[in-house]
Amino acid sequence: MFAYTLRRLMFAVPTLLAISFVIFALLDLAPNDPTGDLPLTIPPEVRDQIRSSLGLDQPFLIRYLLWLQQFMINEPLNLLERLLGVELGNSSERLRVTSWATRSPVVDLIIQRLPQTLWVIGLSYVLAVLIAVPLGVLSAYRQYSWFDQLGTFLSMVGFSVPTFFTGVLLIVVFSSWLGWFPAIYDTNHRVTDWQSLVYQLRQMAMPVFVLTLYNTSQIARFVRASLLDNLSQDYIRTARAKGVKERSVLLVHALRNSLIPVVTVIALGVPAVFSGAIITEQIFRVNGLGQLLIIAIQGADIPLVQTLTFIFAILIILFNLIADLLYAMLDPRIRYD
Amino acid sequence: MKMRRWITRFVVAGTALGAAAGPAFGERGSDGDLKILYWQAVSIMNPYLSSGTKDMHAASMVIEPLARFDETGNIVPTLVSEIPSLENGGISEDLTTITWRILPDLRWSDGTDFTAEDVVFTWQYCTAPDGGCAQRSQFTDVAAVEAVDPLTVRVTFSVPKPYPFGPFVGMSSPIIQKAQFESCVGARAPECTEANFGPHGTGPFKVRELRANDVVLFDANQYYRDPAKPAFATATLKGGGDATSAARAVLESGEFDYGWNLMIEPEVLATMEQAGRGTLVSSFGSLVERIVINWTNPDPALGSLRSTREGGEHPFLSDPAVRRALSMAIDRDLLVDIGFGEAGQATCNIVPAPEINRSTGNDDWCLTADIEGANALLDEAGWVPGPDGIRAKDGVRLSMLYQTSTNSVRQSMQAIIKDMWSAIGVDAELRDVSSSVFFGGDPGSPDTFQKFFADVEMYANNFDGTDAESYLAEWTCALIPSPETGWRGQNIPRYCNPEYDALVAKLGETAEEQPRAEIVKQLNDMLTADGAHIPLVHRGDLSGHVNTLAGVRMNSWDSQLWNVADWYRTE
Hints:
The complex is a heterodimer. By secondary structure, chain A is mostly helical. Chain A has twelve helices and no strands. The radius of gyration of chain A is 24 Å and the shape is globular. Chain B is built from 16 helices and 21 strands.
């Protein structure tokens, strides 16, 4: 299995290079311009100077290779320096990937945003998994009962009503009318004592709820469908005929087997946690990665978009691999070596 | 002046409370935290590296120009003792130099002295090669900036400048500190993240922290020149989200004290305002939404001569009767009601403000819709309706391509105007282009507003500051975009009138305010009467603040936060 993992990782390198080239080319070909949003009062000569100060007058290939060097070599070195606290080579002269809008290093922006995304989006994902699995199991076990009907109904609502609707609805009800929760996420808030923790939970409540509802619906449906498939199989009947306790039949025999596709779905959903829920973050003004990406796209901040998209690509490839490895752990029939 | 403000504050506070509260007014930092909401987040605090409105507004709380515009468009001193003029000798007789006298004892927020050297340095910083300074045009024709003595700065222009208030006036050219930015000149400018995120300033606040694209935290500047200001000890400028939820946060829930640019459907805003927590404030600058008419032929069959003067005149928009009829058919008040509400006024001017420049020359025929008159005009000119109701003459049908940028208000305006035009037998095909492409100016793209591969197009434009000279010069023959100039040039309609050019030249030689305004009005009237464009709506800015925030003087000529030092809280 180790050899397999290593082989997959090696294979990921050319894949990622190809992805990075495609992203760079796509962004470059897109009819977009960082000076496009500037007021019309700024004359074209000044726009030209701005473009050339951003390095846009260089040929495509040079810009691509420069970015590659900055992202693949310079940034990891900087990160290493930061972690170890030592200086590696001439670090002040090393060019970093710099955002066009903020003129500051892209990686610093991402590091600044990561905790909020992990807190809010990550928490909602964990909650979603914790709720969805028992919900799916109960729904499948008592198929067509009132609980299943209700669960199906709620899942359908959660799955089909878009987050930009539920988000705004929650704000109108709980913030504007009832005044229970703040509508705007206070990104300066520091948790220092009990009270500030309560406030943090209050301000996280609405975005976490919106995302949990959405994710739960999705995962619960998978659990239910997968478990239903297994419950009608011969080995379940055999287990019951042997007199195995119903509890073990359900939770050990059936559930373990039905978790295989669910694990894939959950693992493949993790990169989405990092990319943030763009819409939800925007609605509640959570300063996560999703919001960073959308602002960068709107402002044609190409280095930031490029770097973020590429990091998401790395995460997707990584979690694909993790899903495959988890398969082997859950299902003894699958062997990679 | 200060006494009066003091009294006003006392009275306002007194009436609100019913009884006079303690004497805690007028003390720096006594009003706690000021929470400002911009739905576009601040990226950087250096306006020389960004000309995003939100960035310039945020920076205006920290760094200040020598003088700025008040809400009526008048220039008021900020860091200087008086505004230079011909009378007080601050402007030389030959109009080539302007001398500013800096206030004594000014300090930067780090405690060091503010001197004329800082002003000189600001000019050097922005004009350094490879710096990509976004405000370079503020320093057009500046030959030299010298420090005559530590408190006197002289700006010398290479040509006579009847209006010398470009450099160091208004939010686009504030003074930055030499000591802080000295090593950040030219190509090194973007590398100074620390300085760009937290410039030292002379303004009422200083930056504690900027989290790019998210939030800016400010503290009151202890070295601010007025010891009683600002009333707030700290300020938070939160960014991101959308206009609707920003309006809700200020007007309905009161979570924020001030919300910028709350341009959403007028009826939605009205409902929010009924909550009684906040107030909307509006002001008008020089922004005009207009339809520009293509005087040249955009026919694709012309190939590289498309939309150029060489390609020939437009088949039907070259007829003055058609241009005028298109304008007469439009009910501007309806456009205001639907798209702009309080923040719009019907206009027939391209220079709608300041007051001294506002012309009424074309209002008689243009301001109110006159479908009958427009139809009569077209009948007279020989354009007769065909079987489908569309007018035609000699095989040329009045059918146009009408383009604009993608924006929900513009798309509804397009639909309504198309409807209005169909009433006079003119057909319009609607098209919208993503604004980053439309305004992007990429010479390789066929969809830019400069190339104008359409018959008419709609967008908004304004001019910097309060003087319209360089703006009006955009309609001169020399500035017509063409392939030779890489489609550069701001004369989008391709209007060319020697009489107009001569009058623009005369404006460049006139220095006194009143005669200048007269010429500006003449030029403005000429453009509308000739049909270079159809002015539609004079657009204003609309913001909101909670009722407990006082002192807001909404300003479209400068930063909306221009007088944040005077803001205070009433209970």
